[in-house]
Amino acid sequence: MELSGNVMLAVLAAVVPILASTYVAGSVLLEHARAAHVARVYPRVWGRYNAELADLKAEMSMHDPRWNARSQALTARRMRLLEANGIDPYVGTMKAMSDSAVPQAPSAIDQRRQWVLLFGSLVGVFFLALSLL
């Protein structure tokens, strides 16, 4: 019975850190996939917006009374396209740049990942120590 308990503790000592590492690796890969999606969509939406804005500038003067309504409609369409693709519509705007200048706390997901890694490795070391006793 003693050997069986030691074997089980040794298996747990190996499995717990592996599971913790797998969780962290999976969540990082999901975050990278999300960043790749944003990197693909963002230039397309802004490119379309800039082309339509250039067309609008060629069509009318900024002093034309219809300018504000048309430019606001373009901005609203850009924001809807970004939102429809799951991207913060203020990315790349002065508002986002102002917000990014303010010190930010580490993200909750990064803190969770670090705690999972720390807890997983400590539990693995604990089980390994128990199996050696």
Strand content: under 5%
Largest sheet: none
Query: Helical proportion?
Result: over 70%
* Total helical segments: 4
Low-confidence stretches: none
Structural class: mainly alpha
Computed CA radius of gyration, to the nearest angstrom: 26 Å
Using DSSP, what is the number of strands? 0
Shape: rod-shaped
What is the end-to-end distance?
A: 14 Å
| Elements, N to C (H/E) | HHHH
Give the averaged pLDDT, no decimals: 83
Describe the protein.
The protein has 133 residues and is an all-alpha fold. It is 81% helix and 0% strand. It contains four helices and no strands. α1 packs antiparallel against α4. It is rod-shaped. The chain starts with a helix and ends with a helix.
